[in-house]
Design goal:
Length: 645
C-alpha cells in the first residue's frame, strides 16, 4: 500500500510512538521559528531548560508582530530576543525584514523537512512541501533543545485539484472554498494534502496562501508536493540546492477525499465573524465599504502585490475608503520599489505600512465604528481588528484592490483581461537583516538584555489530589484565543508580563473575569465546541494559569490550545454527553474527587459532581503517557526539568 506525502515525511522523522491513526507520535524537528509576540516567553522557557545551544538544523527568531513600539516594552523584547538568539545559536530576523512565514518561505524553508513555529500559521511552509506545524512556545523551546514534538498521528485528507483558476479568481478563493466545505473545526486531527493536475497550475506563493489559511480549518497542517514549480521558486531564491522532489505514491490511501475543480471557482469572501462564513462576491457585490487592508502572511507575496499594483495603476482610492498595504517582506517591498509598483500604489493613495503583521493583529489601522473592512488576511474574529463592532471580510488581493477603487465590494472578474503575472527568474536577495548567531566558543561574551517588562513564568504546582472549585466562567461555542487572551496595540506589549496581561483575559466576553477568578483562588472554565481555535498563543493558557484556573471543561478543543493547556498544567476535560453542558451554570461549585489518583491510574472517564445542583456529569480526561506525566508534574516546564535531572 502506497504512502501519502504526509506519511512519508512523518515516517522519516518518527522518534516515538506507533504509526496508528489517533495514536500520539513524537517527531524529530529540523527547524523552528518564533515571532516576537510569542517569542519572549518561548526564549524564557528555553533559558529555563538550561540548554546552551539549539540542537535543530535551523532556528530563526523573527520580529514582526509588535512593531508599533508605543512604549519601551516591545523594543525591550526585541533586544532580549536578539541577544538570546545571538548567544544560543538562533538566526535573528530584525524588525523590518518581514513577516515570519513569508521570510521563512523565501529564505529558509526546505522541502521534506519538519518545522514547528510558535505561530499558528507556520503551515505556510507546506507550500514548499514541508511538514510545518504551529505550536505553543514551550513546545518550540523543547524542540530547540532537541526534544521531539508530539502530535496525534493525523488523518490525511486529499484535496484533489483539477482544472485551472479563471482570470481574477485567486488562491484565496481555493482556501475559502475548502473552509466553506469543511468549516473552522473540520480539519481537527487532520493534515490536508493537495494533489491532482490542478497543483501544477499554482505557483509557490499561491500554494502558501492555501496552506497558510489551512490553519483556520483547525488542521494540524496542510501540504503541497515539491515539484518543478517548487524547484523554480527555490532557484529564483538562489536556493535550488535544497530542492528535492516529493509526492504521494500513486496508490496512497487517504482518509477523506475532496474534489475541487479550480475552473469552477468564483471570487468569495469570509463574512463576519468567522473564516468559514463564506458568501460569493456576486452575493455581496455593491456593499459599501470603509476600509481595505492588503497584506498579512496569507497574501503579501510579490505576486499578490504585482496584481494589486496592476489594478491600482492610474486610479485613485475611493474618497470614502482608506487603503493600507503591507508587503510581506523586505524582499517584496524592495522589489516593488525597484520595479515601480510601489510608486503606482503610492500614487493611487495607498497608505504603505512596514513589512509586518500590522492591522492583522490589531496593531494599528482599526476600522471606524461598525466599519466594513475588506482584508486579505486569514482571521476575522470579533474585535480582533481593534474595533469591537468592526465588520471584517476576508478576501483575495484582487477583490480587495478593485473594491478599494470602487468604494463598494466588486467582483474582480469585471476587471477585463488579466495579464499573466509571473514570478521573477531571480528574486532580490539580500539577507543583511538576518543576524547569524555567534560561534559556540564566543557565546559567553553575549550579554542577555532584559527589560523591566519581562516577568518570570507563572508558578505552577503539581496536579492536586482532588479539585473543588467554582465555575468562574461559562462560554459558548467557537471561543477563539482572541477571546481568551486578546491581542492588539494595547495588550500585545504585555506578552512578556503574565501578571499584567492576565488583567485582559476574556475581556471580549466578560471584563470582570480576571478579578473574579483571582478572588476565587482556584476555578474551572466551562465552554462549548472548538474551544481555543485560532492563534497558538500560549498566553491563552498562561493567563488562566496565573488566575488560578485548574481545569477547562468543554464540548471539544482546538488542537494547539489543548496542548498549551496541558503544557501549563491545566486539566483539559470534555463532556461525554454534550447535553451535560446545560447542567452547569457560572458560579456552580464543581468537584473532581481523587483526580490525581485517577489520572495516575490512567482512568480517562471521570466524574464531575456539581455540588450546587447535585448533578453527576461524566467527563473525559484523555491523557497519554507523556501528557499524563506533564499534567501530573504541573506543566511541561516542570516535566522537562524533571526529565533533564
Ligand atoms: C495570530 O495570527 O493570531 C497570531 C498573532 O499570529 C498568533 C500568534 C500570537 O498570538 O502571538 C498565531 O496565529 O499563532
Ligand atoms: Fe501575523 Fe496575521 Fe499572520 Fe498572525 S495571521 S502571523 S498576526 S500576519
Amino acid at each position: 500500500m502506497g504512502l501519502t506525502l504526509t506519511e512519508k515525511i512523518l515516517k522519516a522523522h518518527l522518534v516515538e510512538g506507533e504509526f496508528v491513526k489517533g495514536n500520539e507520535i513524537g517527531i524529530k524537528i529540523d527547524q523552528t521559528l518564533t515571532q516576537d509576540a510569542t517569542g519572549t516567553m518561548a526564549y524564557l522557557e528555553f533559558e529555563a531548560m538550561g540548554v546552551p545551544r539549539v540542537k535543530t538544523e535551523r532556528s530563526v527568531a523573527y520580529i514582526d508582530h509588535n512593531t508599533l513600539q508605543s512604549g519601551f516594552e516591545n523594543a525591550d523584547d526585541h533586544r532580549f530576543i536578539g541577544s538570546v538568539a545571538k548567544k544560543h545559536g538562533i538566526y535573528f530576523s530584525r524588525p523590518g525584514n518581514g513577516i515570519c512565514h513569508q521570510v521563512h518561505l523565501e529564505r529558509f524553508g526546505v522541502p521534506g523537512k519538519t518545522l514547528i513555529g510558535s505561530d499558528s500559521h507556520t503551515p505556510t511552509g507546506g507550500g514548499i512541501g514541508m511538514i510545518a506545524i504551529g505550536a505553543g512556545g514551550l513546545d518550540v523551546a523543547v524542540a530547540m533543545g532537541g526534544g521531539a514534538y508530539y502530535i496525534t498521528y493525523p488523518k490525511v485528507v486529499k484535496v484533489n485539484l483539477t482544472g485551472k483558476l479563471n482570470s481574477w479568481v485567486a488562491a484565496k478563493d481555493v482556501i475559502l472554498e475548502v473552509l466553506r466545505r469543511m468549516s473552522v473545526k473540520g480539519g481537527v486531527g487532520k493534515v490536508i494534502e493537495y494533489c491532482g493536475e490542478g497543483v501544477k497550475t499554482l505557483s509557490v506563493p499561491e500554494r502558501a496562501t492555501i496552506t497558510n489559511m489551512g490553519a483556520e480549518l483547525g488542521a494540524t497542517t496542510s501540504i503541497f508536493p515539491s515539484d518543478e514549480i517548487t524547484r523554480e521558486f527555490l532557484k529564483a531564491q538562489e536556493r535550488e540546492e535544497v530542492w528535492v522532489e516529493l509526492k504521494a505514491d500513486d496508490d496512497a490511501v487517504y482518509d477523506e477525499v475532496i474534489e475541487i475543480n479550480l475552473s469552477e471557482l468564483a471570487p468569495m469572501a469570509a463574512c463576519p465573524h468567522s473564516p468559514d462564513n463564506i458568501k460569493s462576491a456576486t452575493e455581496l457585490e455593491g456593499m459599501k465599504i470603509d476600509q481595505v487592508c492588503i497584506g498579512s502572511c496569507t497574501n503579501s507575496s510579490l505576486l499578490d502585490m504585482l496584481k494589486v499594483a496592476h489594478i491600482l495603476k492610474g486610479k485613485t482610492v475611493h474618497p470614502d475608503v482608506s487603503l493600507s498595504i503591507a508587503p510581506g517582506s523586505k524582499q517584496v517591498l524592495n522589489m516593488l520599489a525597484k520595479n515601480g509598483a510601489l510608486s503606482i500604489m503610492i500614487d493611487a493613495g495607498a497608505r504603505i505600512l512596514e513589512s509586518a503583521c500590522g492591522p492583522c493583529i490589531g496593531m494599528g489601522q482599526s476600522p471606524n465604528s461598525k466599519g466594513i473592512s475588506l482584508r486579505t488576511f486569514n482571521r476575522n474574529f470579533e474585535g480582533r481588528s481593534g474595533t469591537k463592532d468592526g465588520q471584517i471580510y476576508l478576501v483575495s488581493p484582487e477583490l480587495a484592490a478593485a473594491s478599494a477603487v470602487a468604494g463598494v465590494l466588486v467582483d474582480p472578474r469585471g476587471l477585463g483581461d488579466m495579464p499573466e503575472f509571473k514570478l521573477p527568474e531571480v528574486f532580490e536577495i539580500n539577507d543583511n537583516m538576518i543576524v547569524p548567531p555567534v560561534d559556540e566558543k564566543d557565546m559567553d561574551s553575549v550579554e542577555i538584555l532584559r527589560g523591566p517588562n519581562i516577568k518570570p513564568f507563572p508558578t505552577t504546582t503539581p496536579l492536586d489530589d482532588s479539585i473543588e472549585a467554582a465555575c468562574s466562567l461559562k462560554v459558548g461555542d467557537n471561543i477563539t484565543t482572541d477571546h481568551i487572551m486578546p491581542a492588539g496595540a494595547k495588550i500585545l506589549p504585555l506578552r512578556s508580563n503574565i501578571p499584567a496581561i492576565s488583567k485582559h483575559c476574556f475581556a471580549v466576553c466578560d471584563e470582570a473575569f480576571p478579578e473574579r477568578a483571582l478572588s476565587l483562588g482556584k476555578s474551572i472554565i466551562v465552554g462549548g465546541s472548538n474551544y481555543g481555535q485560532g492563534s497558538s498563543r500560549e498566553h491563552a493558557a498562561l493567563a488562566p494559569l496565573y488566575l488560578g484556573v485548574k481545569a477547562v471543561l468543554v464540548k471539544s478543543f482546538a488542537r494547539i490550545h489543548r496542548a498549551n493547556l496541558i503544557n501549563a498544567g491545566i486539566l483539559p476535560l470534555t463532556f461525554v454527553n454534550e447535553a451535560d453542558y446545560d447542567k452547569i451554570s457560572q458560579g456552580d461549585i464543581l468537584e473532581l474527587a481523587d483526580v490525581r489518583k485517577n489520572v495516575i491510574d490512567g482512568i480517562t472517564k471521570l466524574c464531575v459532581v456539581n455540588k450546587t445542583t447535585g448533578a453527576e456529569i461524566p467527563v473525559l480526561c484523555e491523557l497519554t503517557g507523556r501528557t499524563k506525566d506533564i499534567v501530573l508534574a504541573g506543566g511541561l516546564l516542570d516535566y522537562t526539568r524533571e526529565s533533564l535531572k
